[in-house]
């Protein structure tokens, strides 16, 4: 049997890879002291963030990884990481830029992952799952390589929830008859806006707020720590 073919436009995929590479390099460049990375380390993190989402997406879909079928992906991720290092040297306060790129990258990879899964015939729920994994995959790999707590596993600002919401809206719009490109654009916007609003207004789930309050209480000795 011939598998249905879905091709993400090269320019769109490269934009996502490039933005991911810049965001990853900016993130890695911000560490000081013992966690400070050299130029090679920053470049590797940028490449991992730029290419990680696409690799995870295609592995879950059991198709040949698109990022390994062209020279442009690795070249784009590498050049983007180098650009990210340059920006890190030019700007002292990069939090707003990193946040904006992070939100957009999540939206792009989530939309591409869900769209590809839907066109390949996956049901809505698995398609959304693939999209979310693609959206957060680069960040997970980044945190694991750097020895940091994985962002989506700890208290955060609706990191995976934003991706899931955007992917679900995309799948719903497509199911209602919208063109997959239009649905993808809507999904990207939804994810990006939710992620930005969650961080700007410090919105989190009730369980996350409870965990955060306990963490603060422990760190300020408001809750005694019983040692064996």
From TrEMBL:
Membrane topology classification: Multi-pass membrane protein
Matches recorded under Pfam families: Gly_transporter
Alphabetic keyword roster: Cell membrane, Membrane, Transmembrane, Transmembrane helix
Localisation: Cell membrane
Claim: Transmembrane helix is one of the keywords in the record: yes
Coiled-coil portions: none
Membership in a protein family: Belongs to the UPF0126 family.
Name of the protein described by the UniProt record: TRIC cation channel family protein
Species: Microbacterium allomyrinae
